[in-house]
Design goal:
Layout (H helix, E strand, L loop, with lengths): L2 H30 L15 H14 L1 H6 L1 H21 L9 H9 L3 H18 L1 H6 L2 H22 L5 H12 L10 H16 L7 H4 L4 H4 L12 H8 L2
Helix pairs in contact: 1-10, 4-6, 6-8, 8-10
The protein binds protoporphyrin IX containing FE (HEM) (2 copies).
Length: about 240
């Protein structure tokens, strides 16, 4: 067993724990936060089914971003869709035998990494080139894009230029899942890739990346426009009303 494997295993366990516990705690807070007012972005669906459909379109197509800015939509959607395919491809490192759909994604998504990096590059260029976006961009905005770009670039470097022993990588990741530590290949792109992935997981719950679960808890998106049919009373107000 190499010492690097032990350090990386500790790093990945710790960051994965921060990710899971952090996201769960945030979601618990959001789920308990009352929404005292009806504030769906109108025109809004009038039924819960309609709300689910609109949320679905928002998640899959980024519908409201499309209406707001075509360029941001193009690069943003490209990045997110490619990220989804890249992550699906990565599932093969965490299961044995590998599910058939995951096997199929390998060939279909072989170049998704390039689309991910291209989308990120476009989003980053926007933060420098569009005056009013540059004005409101914080170091955190830039660092998020840089972090994801570096993860993508190190992944692509491994895939196309400086190959790593992916059989050994898979033994390492399966070992993590089974609490049976295995050696890690000592290749720089791999160590950079995994180190940055650990950073990504650790900061996720305290960063703007929480927009992913946050969307589902946004009253402007998850409320039906039915205030005329049904009086809206938030949970705490309902409890107050029940008091004698
Ligand atoms: C339910 C899943 C997700 C949805 C619906 C979603 C949607 C969006 C939307 C609509 C934007 C706004 C683009 C803009 O107006 O500037 C955005 C930005 C962003 N998303 Fe997501 N996202 C999701 C998951 C993720 C995940 C898992 C990551 C990364 C791990 C991610 C990383 C980012 C980043 C870095 C930005 C900022 C881009 C910039 O600075 O220009 N998203 N996302
Ligand atoms: C513990 C988790 C992860 C492990 C073990 C891992 C490992 C790897 C390995 C070994 C490769 C090279 C593939 C090859 O040579 O065929 C790779 C590629 C890549 N990784 Fe990761 N990675 C992880 C997480 C992530 C995450 C979270 C992202 C995105 C935010 C990411 C993005 C990429 C990209 C874009 C590529 C290149 C394109 C591709 O192979 O699909 N990786 N990764």
């Amino acid at each position: 067993m190499n010492a690097v494997a032990i350090v990386y295993a500790a790093l990945l366990y710790a960051s994965a724990a921060l990710l899971v516990v952090g996201v769960a705690l945030k979601i618990r807070t959001w789920a308990r936060t009352p929404a005292p007012l009806k504030i769906p972005t109108t025109p809004a669906p009038r039924t819960q089914g309609g709300v689910a459909l609109r949320l679905g379109r928002e998640v899959v197509f980024f519908e409201s971003l499309f209406r707001a800015s075509k360029w941001t939509w193009l690069f943003g959607w490209m990045f997110h869709a490619a990220l989804f395919v890249v992550l699906l491809r990565h599932v093969r490192y965490f299961q044995q035998p590998v599910w058939e759909p995951i096997v199929m994604v390998q060939a279909v998504g072989a170049y998704a990494g390039f689309a991910m990096v291209a989308g990120l590059a476009g989003l980053w260029a926007r933060r420098w080139l569009v005056d009013r976006v540059r004005y409101i961009s914080t170091p955190s905005d830039h660092l998020h894009l840089l972090l994801l770009l570096a993860i993508g670039a190190s992944g692509l470097a491994m895939r196309f230029f400086a190959h790593t022993d992916i059989v050994a990588v898979k033994a390492f990741t399966l070992g993590l899942l089974r609490f049976d530590l295995q050696p890690l290949p000592l290749d720089v792109p791999l160590l950079v890739h995994l180190g940055l992935v650990a950073v990504l997981m650790a900061i996720f719950p305290i960063s703007k990346l929480m927009h992913a679960p946050g969307l589902f808890f946004s009253p402007t998106r998850n409320q039906a426009d039915n205030a005329r049919e049904q009086r809206h009373v938030s949970a705490w107000a309902a409890r107050l009303e029940q008091r004698p």
